[in-house]
Design goal:
The chain has about 250 residues and is of the alpha/beta class. It has two domains: about 55 residues, Ribosomal Protein L25, Chain P (Beta Barrel); about 170 residues, Alpha/beta knot, CATH 3.40.1280. The chain is built from seven helices and eleven strands. Bound molecules: S-adenosylmethionine (SAM). S-adenosylmethionine (SAM) binds next to helix 7.
Length: about 250
Amino acid sequence: MPEISGPGREVVLTGPSRRYIRDVLRMGRGDSLVLFDGSGMEYTAAILEATPRNVTLRILGEQPGDRESPLHIGVGIGLLKANKMDLVIQKVAELGVQEICPVSVHRSVSALDPDRAQGRRERWRTIAREASRQSGRSTVTDVGPVRPFEKMIEYSKVADLRLLFSTEAGRPLELLAQRPAARPQRVFLLVGPEGGFSPEEEEAALGKGFLPVGLGPRILRAETAAIIAAGIVQYRFGDLGGDPRNRPPVDP
Ligand code: SAM
């Protein structure tokens, strides 16, 4: 999607955006739609022409997008098999996660050499872009490079709440969330690969300030755990249960 600016301007779309509007949504001349270019703004536009080569639109108005959560969520996920990784990326992008950090860990089933890692990242970014668009978001979930575990721990330090989802942790998120200080702006959550984290990795994460969180008594597949973890964090601290700025304060 090209960068779009102000009302009155004409925009010509080709490639996947053209295909989506003309062939999937089956829209044509005179129809109106809302566009976004990943900048956080939304643009109302009318179709002037839709041909097999391009779709030409006139921008009618612009406004800030209102489907982005005020909570910034980053998801660190141990590298999974290709189709599972694709699923996690698609679903957490729909849930409004801003950033996905694939992590290479001791028990990752799939190891990636640098060339394949670059190719996979391009694919993941396409999946994230499509999922962000389909869920009506005005920004696109970013997918970072594959980082070694220690680098990811360092990278995650910008978050004010860091959660390690572990089958060993008895404490559910709700107990953590009831602490008076728990009003995070930025949360980073970490979920292991199919075989889980090694004890050394769990120890290292906890030693660097991650808080252990459980997801109940059953052992979930890694992809289920990542998606549900993003959902409950968005519900508890973000906007899945309504705009958190309109909620009454939590009793300590
Ligand atoms: N045998 C592995 C273990 O006990 O760590 C199972 C790993 S599980 C299939 C993959 C990942 O999903 C885990 O590393 C953890 O991050 C997350 N997970 C799965 N079930 C969970 C639960 N009940 N509570 C918290 N995290 C869970």
